[in-house]
């Protein structure tokens, strides 16, 4: 029970923080918001909620999620790792059982890997096959290999569906200047919570779960 509680707790916290980062960046860049909502209108429309089966047909939304996880990984150092045997990395001798941290925040902002790494540019992923599932070391929000996050599939599904439905069902308006300052910790969240106005733009019955499709 304790292990399952930890897994669900970690999945909920990290997913909501990721969605908040995505919304914050989108509100700072209105053209991104418009482009994402245009895509959702074309694929999903206003008569139903976004479903998991819609996600493969929403490449720009997927690019937004990838860019959010690159620039604002919620676990900037992942979980602690331990070396299983003596090894050498970049000329340094690393002994067995050494605790190691992978700084995915620094990797995601490395100018030798990414063009304009501090800019929020979802378009960089539209013509790229880089994924977040641990096969591309430029982007490792879930880690990789046997120590990758066991909730990867659940987390991706949660983030895509929550963000897609928030963007498709509501109009968004800033109530104050968006502060993108980071609160660094085990989970890296916004230093100040996002404050924005959401106005329903789909029929009420859609939100009630009585969609027509």
UniProtKB/TrEMBL annotation:
One of its GO terms (molecular function) is iron ion binding. Gene3D superfamilies: Cytochrome P450. InterPro entries: Cyt_P450 (IPR001128), Cyt_P450_CS (IPR017972), Cyt_P450_E_grp-I (IPR002401), Cyt_P450_sf (IPR036396). Transmembrane segments: none annotated. Pfam families: p450. Keywords: Heme, Iron, Metal-binding, Monooxygenase, Oxidoreductase. Its cofactor is heme. Heme binds at residue 149. Belongs to the cytochrome P450 family. This is Cytochrome P450. The lineage of its organism: Eukaryota, Viridiplantae, Streptophyta, Embryophyta, Tracheophyta.
């Amino acid at each position: 029970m304790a292990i399952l509680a930890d897994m669900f707790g970690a999945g909920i916290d990290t997913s909501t923080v990721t969605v908040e980062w995505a919304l914050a960046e989108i509100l700072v860049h209105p053209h991104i918001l418009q482009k994402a909502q245009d895509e959702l209108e074309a694929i999903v429309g206003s008569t139903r909620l976004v479903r998991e089966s819609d996600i493969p047909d929403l490449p720009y939304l997927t690019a937004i999620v990838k860019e959010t996880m690159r620039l604002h990984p919620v676990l900037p150092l992942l979980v602690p790792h331990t070396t299983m045997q003596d090894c050498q990395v970049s000329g340094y001798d690393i002994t067995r059982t050494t605790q190691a941290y992978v700084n995915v925040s620094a990797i995601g902002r490395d100018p030798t890997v990414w063009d304009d790494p501090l800019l929020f540019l979802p378009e960089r992923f539209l013509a790229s096959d880089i994924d977040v599932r641990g096969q591309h070391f430029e982007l490792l929000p879930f880690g990789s290999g046997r120590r990758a996050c066991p909730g990867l599939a659940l987390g991706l599904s949660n983030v895509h569906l929550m963000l897609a439905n928030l963007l498709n069902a509501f109009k968004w308006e800033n109530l104050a200047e968006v502060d993108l300052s980071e609160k660094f910790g085990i989970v890296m969240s916004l230093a100040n919570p996002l404050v924005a106005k959401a106005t329903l733009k789909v029929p009420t019955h859609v939100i009630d779960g009585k969609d027509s499709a």
